[in-house]
Structure formats: structure tokens, C-alpha cells
Amino acid sequence: MSLKRILGVMLASRMAGRGRRRGSLGSAALLGGLGGRGLRGKAGVAALGYMAYQAYRDHQSRQRASGSTAHAASSGSGSGLSGIFDQIAGALGGEAQSTETPDPRHQQAAEAMSDDRALLLIRGMIAAAHADGNLSTDERHRIAGQLDEAEASADERRLIATEIENPKPIDTLLARIDDHDTAIEFYLASRAAVDSETEANRAYLTLLRNRLGITEDEAREAEELAP
User: Fold this and answer.
1) Which of the pair, 200 or 60, is modelled with greater confidence?
2) pLDDT tens across 134-147, in order?
3) Of 63, 115, 118, 180, which is most buried, counting CB atoms within 10 Å of its CB?
4) Which 3-state string (H, E, C) describes 31-53?
5) Closest CA to 186 of 162, 204, 147, 212
6) How many CB atoms lie within 10 A of CB 33?
7) Which are the contacts of 141, defined by CB distance < 8 A and separation ≥ 6?
């Protein structure tokens, strides 16, 4: 199964879209500028960033192979993820910068992440998306587009559909988190999945911070990475 690929596409589409609208370079920091201290220096966060970045690169490669470009596709009907991935290119500073090779340590961190861990983070994103009620029709269409972009198999589509219709209780998910690094990854993925401007989502993120032991500094940096 390619659950890490699905997770990468979900992260890229959610984070780049919001970061672009708000004029933030948080998505660029996650996708192309990881390293140093704080959350950016953690292997798990680097893995998430690499998977999202690779999702963008794969999309660009397919666009070139088909004789198209992400920009041209995004000017059409708006279906699919072409426009969102074009936003990632803008966040990264344009095509020339986006073709740079990421730090190999980030790739190694992504390869080391298990599909079980990727599924836990996907489930966290789905649970977060349900925080303010059931998923809307538009949100379901977006997820379907993300699965298309990730070239998900029939089994993977059934798995995600089951998770959407029957999201795991938060207590069940948190019981699987037994170290702080995983807690940070879970919080960052969950933060990427929601818009923090609604009261229900703010309350959910506060609940997660308290239950996961996320510090104020870590939460603030997560806001920068997932604006």
C-alpha cells in the first residue's frame, strides 16, 4: 500500500492551499526549508515535509510527461489538485527553486516511516476534519481528488472511505501515541487538516495540545508550518 504517498498528497494540498491564501510561507518552510532546530529539526516532521514535497514533484513530472503544466491546468475548471500544486511551486519560490534536491536525510526519514504510522496520521487528519461536524460534500470531493492524485489503489480507496464514514475515536488514536515525536507529528498533521478560525476547530486543537503534551512553543511553530 502507498499510504505514505496518500499522506503526502493530503498534507501538500491542505497546507499549500491555506498558506498561499494567507500570504504565508509556512508551507515553503515545511516543503523545502526543513532543518535546524525546533520542529524543523525533527526526523518525523522532516519526513512529512519530504512526502509532501515529493507529491508536488511527482505531480510536476506527470504534467510534463503529458505535455501540460500545473499552471495551465490550474487555469481550467479547478478540478483536481493542479492549482494547489501550482501554489506549492509559488511557495517554494518558482520552478527553478522547486527542482532543487531536498536534503537526503529528509528522504531517509520518509522512507523509515512505516505505513502504520502514516495511517495513524491520516486517521488523525480525518478525525480533525470531523471536529466541526460531518465532512461536507466539497470536502469529500477534495479527498477524492487527493486519492486520484496519489494514484490510490481500490483497496486504499475503500480503506479511506471506511475511515471517513467511521472515523476513529480520538481516545483510540491517542492511545497509539507513546512518544513525544509521534505526538508532534500527529498534532502537525491534524493542524494541517483544519482551519483554526472556527470555534469547534480551535477547541479540538486545544484538546489535542493538552492531551498530547504539546508545548506553547511547539504549537506556535506548528502554526507557522501549517498556517
Assistant:
1) 200
2) 788 888 888 999 99
3) 118
4) HHCCCCCHHHHCHHHHHHHHHHH
5) 212
6) 16
7) none
